[in-house]
Backbone:
């Protein structure tokens, strides 16, 4: 069998694909930010909340960590309309990814809470720090150092996970790649360029995050 | 002149009394050591003095002034006059050595950074760490970390220094470098209350030794009395056990 690669047919569509990549980045960023807030609430509840609240958050985390993200988004997209909650594909994907991220980020941030050294806090108290000063100078820097690497990893995973949105017709990078594939039938070219774009995106994100982590938080992160 | 005065002090953990009728005087420039078996309340006494565990009854006086531990301002005041060094150093892991030493004078006392940094450099040079200003705690040995912790405590210019088993977590070969630092402070007339298991050291530097057991002060006296001629049976038993090996 003879295959002749014809990238020339695809390269004019590069801006179209890049537009999709931009949407992917947006979805990942928004879902991550939402997930961070949910996770902060969840981790606080798990660490300091009353028993009923811990049980509730535990159920949420358990459900979202033990079911596929795709099924979760399907549920939101197809089942919630029966309950009167009609959503655009973009909204359903964003909500699903946010809730999913919230569960994972609850667990990650809770681990950060438990890693705070009580003795370091006591030292902060005995040199006269107020609670706010302890949080600002001791707790937050410590948490950031511990949490920055796993949070970065999850962010990268989420960026790649946005490709699921294509299934619901969202025109992010994978969605646009599918469109382009059905127009041109140059599958190998389309998907190798798409894969290349994902690699570029994650490479840039990983490097930037590692630089920030090392520079600001003394986090142990490898730079490729 | 009495510098630190503890009168009939009592403290509880929950329903459990951990310190009972503690009486103790530390004169200005005096070095008093607390010895006794684990769980006898030595470290707890330091925690009470610092306001980490509020007392149930009794009084703590510093320079004749009674501390009200329910009053936040009093607790804050005592923490600027009394500094502590812990067994586990408890340095701030996210700060380099210089910042560990300077952060309290700058952020708590509001002193100008440049001035505090100059002092901190002198302090760190004095404890033999003048070349480690930019190192982080996890890059230092235990003995070095403990000396940073001592410098951090001294940077607040305390009147009284509390040392809580400062050599217990150290490898044997690192103990002396820390003890030397404390000896230097002793010769400079710093008032110190020391919890220690280094009996030879306690005997050497202390003007007074307090033997505690089960939350009580059993016997107080000069080192010669406590180690060579203890009066109480409980003290004789403890001293006999530790000096035998």
Residues:
């Amino acid at each position: 069998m003879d295959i002749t690669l014809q990238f020339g047919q695809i390269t004019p569509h590069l801006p179209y694909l890049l537009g999709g990549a931009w949407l992917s980045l947006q979805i990942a960023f928004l879902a991550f930010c939402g997930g961070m807030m949910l996770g902060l609430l969840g981790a606080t509840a798990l660490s300091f909340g009353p028993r009923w609240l811990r049980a509730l958050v535990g159920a949420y985390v358990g459900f979202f960590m033990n079911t596929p993200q795709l099924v979760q988004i399907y549920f939101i997209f197809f089942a919630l309309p029966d309950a009167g909650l009609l959503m655009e594909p973009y909204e359903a994907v964003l909500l699903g990814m946010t809730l999913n991220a919230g569960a994972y980020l609850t667990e990650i941030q809770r681990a950060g809470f438990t890693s705070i050294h009580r003795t370091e806090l006591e030292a902060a108290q005995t040199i006269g720090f107020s609670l706010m000063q302890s949080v600002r100078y001791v707790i937050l820097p410590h948490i950031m150092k511990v949490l920055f690497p796993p949070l970065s990893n999850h962010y990268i995973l989420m960026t790649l996970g946005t490709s699921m949105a294509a299934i619901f017709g969202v025109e992010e990078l994978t969605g646009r790649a599918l469109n382009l594939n059905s127009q041109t039938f140059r599958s190998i070219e389309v998907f190798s360029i798409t894969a290349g774009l994902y690699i570029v995106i994650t490479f840039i994100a990983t490097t930037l995050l590692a630089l920030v982590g090392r520079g600001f938080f003394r986090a142990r992160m490898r730079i490729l | 002149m009495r510098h630190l005065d503890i009168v009939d002090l009592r403290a509880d953990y929950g329903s459990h009394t951990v310190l009972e009728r503690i009486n103790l005087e530390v004169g200005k420039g005096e070095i008093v050591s607390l010895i006794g078996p684990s769980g006898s309340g030595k470290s707890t006494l330091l925690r009470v003095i610092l306001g980490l565990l509020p007392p149930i009854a009794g009084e703590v006086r510093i320079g004749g002034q009674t501390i009200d531990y329910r009053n936040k301002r009093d607790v804050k005041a005592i923490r600027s006059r009394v500094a502590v060094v812990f067994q586990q150093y408890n340095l701030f892991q996210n700060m380099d050595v210089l910042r560990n030493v300077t952060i309290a004078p700058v952020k708590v006392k509001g002193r100008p950074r440049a001035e505090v940094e100059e002092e901190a450099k002198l302090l760190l040079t004095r404890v033999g760490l003048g070349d480690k200003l930019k190192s982080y705690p996890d890059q230092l040995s235990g003995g070095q970390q403990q000396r940073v912790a001592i410098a951090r405590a001294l940077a607040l210019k305390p009147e009284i220094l509390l040392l809580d088993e400062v050599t217990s977590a150290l490898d044997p070969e690192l103990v002396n470098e820390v003890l030397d630092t404390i000896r230097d402070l002793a010769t400079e007339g710093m008032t110190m209350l020391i919890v220690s298991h280094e009996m030879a050291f306690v005997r050497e530097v202390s003007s007074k030794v307090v033997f505690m057991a089960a939350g009580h002060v059993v016997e107080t006296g000069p080192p010669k009395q406590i180690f060579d001629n203890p009066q109480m049976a409980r003290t004789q038993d403890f001293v006999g056990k530790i000096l035998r090996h």
